[in-house]
Amino acid sequence: MGKQPTKAERILDRLDWKVIRRLDGLLQGDYRTFFQGFGLDFADIREYQYGDDVRTLDWNVTARMATPYVRRYHEDRDITAWFLVDLSPSVEYGSPNRRKRDILTDCTAVLARLLTRRGNKVGAILFDGSVPILRPPGVGRKQVLTLIQDIEEYSVERRVPETDLSILLEAASMVIRRRSLLFILSDFYSVPGWERVLGQLTLKNEVTGIRVYDPEEGSFPPVGIVWVEDAETGQQFLLDSSSRNFQKNLARLEVERVGKLERTFRSWGLDLLSLSTDADLVRELLRFSGYRKLRASHAARRKA
After folding, report:
1. N or C: which end of the chain has fewer CB within 10 A?
2. How far, in Å, CA of 176 to CA of 122, rounded?
3. Does position 299 have pLDDT exceeding 60, yes or no?
4. How far apart are the C-alpha atoms of 180 and 268, rounded to whole Å?
5. 271-276 and 206-213 beta bridge pairing
């Protein structure tokens, strides 16, 4: 009797057949456009020209010369990618068959596998809302299996006050020294303040946000007066779920929260991919790739 595959192996085998092989065939030459921010090594500094990416500004030289200067990079052969994965209690939300956490696992596994199949390194920082856990970069299928296992086995054994994503992002800024490709995977339920740290990360890295959500968020079944519990803090309170004002305010607050999140990423010139728990991962990643290709084409025309 042969050795039974581990849970991580079963997950990766499923994704290999249902997602990764399809993406490999459909992306083809668009692979580098999809990842866009591949590893870059410093080449030289020159004066800013219209159309240059403001994230390449060298502030020290700019201050000395009293005119904007940008750093130029040449493409490195390999990419180093980091997955900053938010595993705080709120990502446990979803249906019994498909939680937000499951989407985080699948998306990390797919992107990591696409990268490692081409010899690139991938690492991760996992975050439960309190203490970040580091998985150093590695290569190959074994590293992808390790990341899947890390995410699947990572459990939150205690309540957290409220998730503060700035802790995760600050840990990344201290650990990641070489210019890298960063994926921030989260539902972005967090206290304010992480937005500033996000801006700091963009100065040295290519950052992409991946928001996971459930279609039922922002709504609540009108079942009358019920006790509810905050998934992260454990705080309990009584509410009238049948109240029209409650239903309206709940939906409005979620729309405002997501709108603010999108504006934050846009203000730093970053992309934000939103993935629902009922999403077709292949379709959504291809759509995202097409959007990036179109944006890169428009940017090239502006510089021409």
Report:
1. N
2. 12
3. no
4. 17
5. parallel
Q: What is the CATH number of domain 7-29+79-215+269-297?
A: 3.40.50.410
Say how many C-beta atoms besides its own lie within 10 A of residue 296's C-beta: 12
φ, ψ for residue 124, nearest 5 deg? -150, 155
Q: Write the CB contacts of 240 (distance below 8 Å, at least 6 apart in sequence).
A: 224, 225, 246
Q: What is the C-alpha separation between 166 and 191, in angstroms, rounded? A: 9
Name the residue ranges covered by the structural domains of the chain.
Answer: 7-29+79-215+269-297, 40-75
- Burial (CB < 10 A; 0-12, 13-18, 19+), residue 36, is middle
Q: What is the pLDDT of residues 228-252, one digit of tens each?
A: 776 666 677 677 667 788 788 888 9
CA angle 151, 20, 90 (to 5 degrees): 30
Structure tokens of 99? Answer: 């939680």
Range 146-159 average pLDDT: 81
* Closest by Cα among 79, 5, 91 to 39: 79
What average pLDDT does this structure show over 126-138?
90
d(Cα 13, Cα 30) in Å, to the nearest integer? 24
The full DSSP string for the chain is: -PPPPPHHHHHHHHHIIIIIHHHHHHHGGGHHHHH----EEEEEEEE--TT--GGGB-HHHHHHHTS-EEEEEEE-SS-EEEEEEE-SGGGG-EETTEEHHHHHHHHHHHHHHHHHTTT-EEEEEEESSS-EEEEEEE-HHHHHHHHHHHHHH----S--SS--HHHHHHHHHHH--S--EEEEEE-----TTHHHHHHHHHTTSEEEEEEEE-TTTT-----SEEEEE-TTT--EEEEETT-HHHHHHHHHHHHHHHHHHHHHHHHTT-EEEEEETT--HHHHHHHHHHHHHHHHHHHHHHH-
Pairwise CA distance, residues 210 & 271, whole Å:
9
Taking alpha carbons only, the member of 24, 26, 30 closest to residue 296 is 30
